[in-house]
């Protein structure tokens, strides 16, 4: 799933503590630290509710569970639609997700069937004593589509940042709805 980076609200518990998006050759590296005013178990539940990823961000048009690997990984298909000005394009992504023993979520993009040559995603999820959840999201992705060299990387970085902000906001909203 193309994930990551967001905007902090004035003083509330939810927000982006830090974000970094950079390009290294053909790869994009994303790091986002955020705080969500919800318990970690709810956040994990939302991030592993694969058929309902569209609730996490409106760019996700479709998501479906494909299979369970013998080692416990879940293979998931995700279709996202990204629009820049009047131009829109679809991104296919097949990812093997695994919930780690410590409660973190790891994803490895499967290049066959995806619009990526490479992709690794990782959510470090920790609950504080105050009941908020700290998420450190990191990703390294290499899109297989051609990206125009002058403006393309700037636009892609901006879109990744918008995705991250929207994701954090929606995770907290969905976690609140689940609680009451």
| Strand runs, count | 8
What structural category do the secondary elements indicate? Answer: alpha+beta
Distance between the termini: 28 Å
Uncertain runs: 1-13
Number of H/I helices: 2
What's the assembly state of these chains?
single chain
Strand order of the largest sheet: 1-2-8-7-6-5-4-3
- Radius of gyration, rounded? 16 Å
Helix content estimate: 10-25%
CATH architecture: 2-Layer Sandwich
CATH fold-level label = Alpha-D-Glucose-1,6-Bisphosphate, Chain A, domain 4
CATH class: Alpha Beta
What percent of residues are in strands?
Answer: over 45%
Mean pLDDT: 85
- Looking at this structure, what is the CATH superfamily? START domain
Number of structural units classed as domains: 1
Q: What is the helix/strand order?
A: EEHEEEEEEH
Largest sheet: 8 strands, antiparallel
Shape descriptor: globular
Describe this structure in words.
The chain is of the alpha+beta class. The chain contains two helices and eight strands; from the N terminus they run E-E-H-E-E-E-E-E-E-H. It has helices spanning 40-47, 152-179; strands spanning 15-24, 27-36, 60-68, 74-84, 87-99, 105-109, 116-127, 133-143. It has an eight-stranded antiparallel β-sheet, covered by helices on one side. A hairpin with a 6-residue loop joins strand 6 (105-109) and strand 7. The relative contact order is 0.25. Residues 1-13 have low confidence and may be disordered.
